[in-house]
Amino acid sequence: MSFLFHDVEISVDELEAMKKKLKVKRNAELENYYWQLTGEIENSSELALVAMMSDSITVERRDDALEISIIRKAKPKF
């Protein structure tokens, strides 16, 4: 899934902070608990939560646009 946002005013520091929050390894075993835990963890954010449930995320700045691509692989069916 990709999102393209136009006319984005974001500083280099803000962009780097966003990328840092999104560099979280997926932990499929805990996904059912993430939403419940967000109310109990300090400094949590919905953006970090999305990252925890994704396999990979890329954030790219293109002139006045910001593109965020999120990949989440399907769970294997047993």
Helices and strands, with pairings:
Elements: E1 2-5, H1 12-21, H2 31-37, H3 46-52, E2 56-62, E3 65-71
Antiparallel strand pairs: 1-3, 2-3
Give an overview in words.
The longest helix is centred in the N-terminal third of the chain and has 10 residues. It contains three helices and three strands; from the N terminus they run E-H-H-H-E-E. By secondary structure, the protein is of the alpha+beta class. A three-stranded antiparallel beta sheet has the order 1-3-2, covered by helices on one side. It is elongated, with a radius of gyration of 14 Å. It has one domain. The mean pLDDT is 79.
- Termini distance? 25 Å
Q: Tell me, briefly, the overall form.
A: elongated
**Elements, N to C (H/E):** EHHHEE
Number of helices: 3
Give the helix/strand class.
alpha+beta
How many domains in all? Answer: 1
Extract low-pLDDT stretches: none
| Strand content range | 15-25%
